[in-house]
Amino acid sequence: MFKHEKQFLNPVKVDRVNPNYAALLQEQLGGPQGELKSALQYLSQSMRIKDPEIKDLFLDIAAEELCHLEMISATVNMLNGHNLDAMGSTVGNVEAHVLTGLTPMLANASGYLWTAAYVNETGDAAADILSDIAAEQRAKVVYQYLYRQIDDKGVRETIDFLLNREEAHNTMFREAFNRIQDSGSQKDWGTTKDARIYFDLSSPGGQTFDPAKDKPTEFKI
Question: DSSP string covering 23-87, please?
Fold first, then answer.
């Protein structure tokens, strides 16, 4: 059961109306790294989780992502203001002025509608948690891009809060992953010699690396 509480996790405000930035922020409503995707991905994955604590973790984070969705929607609403202006809007924001009456849409910054194809679920806890870690990291990157492109103090405070919550979720998923090393697809990890041989296919190179015999190669990024 879900319960709606009217108080946001963190106050939401903007300094001024900015419809074009509202279109950018739509990315975190209906984009592939957005809050709706995260909420429904974790909710869907939880349906197969057998460990009660990890199941609760998925559901708790999914519920919070719905709170984030509400915060982003409220921010988009404030940024859109009250005046319809399709002729002065960006491409991704036109439908808000001619279709939804400025109601935030479940669409990305280019106006493409959200799709369930964004959601990843395998029924395997390890694979799903790794996907969730990546989802939180990608969401964090998008929020960082958004943060750099606005000087509105109110919007920045909201994004900063959400950035830190993505980091918290990332940490929680990593801790959950450490707990399931002996389950699902992790059970047979590295059980044959083929799982412990690494190939250096860069040129010059082309050698194989067996950690039981050879000294590890340093990789620099």
Answer: HHHTHHHHSTTSHHHHHHHHHHHHTT--SHHHHHHHHHHHHHHHHHHHHHHHHHHHHH-S---GG
